[in-house]
Amino acid sequence: MSVSQETETRSGADSVLRLDGIVKRYDDVVALDGVTLTVSGNEYVSLLGPSGSGKTSLLRVIAGFERPEAGRVHFRGADVTDVSPHQRGIGFVFQNFALFPHMSVLKNVTYGLVNADEGAVSAEVAERRARAMLEMVGLSGLESRGVDQISGGQKQRVALARTLVKEPQLVLLDEPLGALDANLRARMRNELRTIRKELGVTFLHVTGSESEALAMGDRVAVLDRGRVLQFGAPGTVYDAPSTPNVARFLNRYNLFAGSLHPDGGFEGPFGKVAAPRVQPADEALYGIRYDRVTVEPENTAADAPALHATFRASEYLGSSVIYFFETDAGKIVESEHHMSLGTPPEYRAGARYTLRWKPEHAIVFG
Ligand code: ADP
Ligand code: MG
Question: Which residue's alpha carbon is at the smallest distance from atom 13 of ligand 1?
Answer without folding.
Answer: 52
